[in-house]
Fold:
Amino acid sequence: MARLVQFDRPGTHRLIPAKYGAKSVLESLPLPPQVLSDLSELDAATNERKVAENGGNAAIGPGELLFGVPEAEIVNAAFTHAGPFGGRFNSPERGAWYAGVELATSVAEVSFHKRRFLAEGRIPGRHTFDYIDFLADFSGAFHVLDAREAKACLKPNPIPQCYQASQVLANRLLFDGSNGIVYPSVRRRPSGTCIACFRPALVFHPRRGKQYRLTVEVGSKTTQVQEGTMQAREERV
Structure:
C-alpha cells in the first residue's frame, strides 16, 4: 500500500512549451479597448484555466488555485488543462503538476510524448520544439508506491490504457487528502524520479529557469538538447 515519505527537493524541473510562457496574444493586439474587452470575455468563457478560476470547474476551483503570486497562471494551467484522457496520476477532470527531480528526466518524459505525437501523426523527419524550464520547490509528505502498485501503475504503454490503474489509485489518494505521488520515471529508467503534485499551494516558488530547444525524431532514442547559444548535445532518453 502506498506510504507517506518526507519529500524535500528544491529546483525540480517542469518543461513547458515556450509559447505558453509568453504573454497573452490579446495583450499585443492593436485593437480598440472595447474589442479587446469582448475578446477577453470570449477567452474567459472558453479557457479552461479561467473557467476554473471563476468557479466553473467542479473538480478544482478558486479555493485551491493560486492568485496574486508569481507564475500563478502557469501553475493553475497544470491543474485545469488536464487533457482528454488525463495523465498517469490525474483524471481528465483535474490535472496535476508533474516535474522531474532531474532535468534529464523531464527531457526524457517530454521527448517520449513528442515522439508519440509525431508517430501518431505520421510526421517524418527531425523536429525542434522550444521549452521553458519551470523550477519549483517541494517540501512535505508525499506518497510512494509499493512494489505491487508500481507494477500496476508504471506500465509504459499503451497510452492511455496504461493509465487506468494509476488514475484509480491517484483519485483514491487525492480524495483521502494526499499531497501527491513521488515515483520512478517511466521514460528514464533506472535513475529518474518524478513527482505528481495534487495541490497547487504545494508548488513552492515556481520560477522560470533556462530555455531549451529539443530536437526529436520518430524511431530515435536520442534527443538533441540545446540551451540558449550553448553547443547542442545528444542524450539517450
